[in-house]
Fold:
Amino acid sequence: MNGINVLVIEDEIDLRDAVVSYLNLEDAFAVGVSNLNDAQKWLAKNTPDVVVLDLNLEGDDGMEWLKERPLSDDISVIITSARGEVVDRIQGFELGIDSYLIKPIALEELTAIISNIHNKKQAVSPSLTPAEWILNALDWSLKHKSHPEPIKLTKLEEMVLNRLALMPGQAVTKKELILALNKKEDSYDSRSLEVLVRRLRQKLEPISGDKTKPIKTIHSIGYSFIESIEII
Structure:
């Protein structure tokens, strides 16, 4: 993560210091502020690559701030919040955030997400060639450009693929996929997610020719859809 600039907006001083210190140890350049007023002052003079934003700040609402003061498209946003309701997560993604982490957060997971964002920005811009895969969210189907017949999906399979397709080539954590299924991490058996992914791979293998493609396991993190995909 050498050289990536991160602004951490968090009013819990111990958590803020821990996040900033950990990111700096990982060779990022991280700065922490405790409120949105200080964040605005810092942003007036600096342009971060990533903003890590707490929603429940003392006297402030991070989500309302994002609505009223949308950040540049060049700035990625990761929300960290104890607010884990589906409506909050959906609202965040509609505002263009890159990830939504439910507190308590794992610093290793946050770092992995930021690293993925950094790698994506460093990559060569994608060409305008058609996507390898097309995910139809209306009829729950997935089609490969070289195969005439679409693959029928269950609703749960579509929900997982839809979340992966939002970040093609990037790691999506198991926690994020569980939340995408509208489940609670503490009560959902992660083995059910593994079974769901295995069934998806079985459906895709006759076309992809490889049971590890296009859904790749990212060790200790989650999964990634490693080929180009478009949602319609």
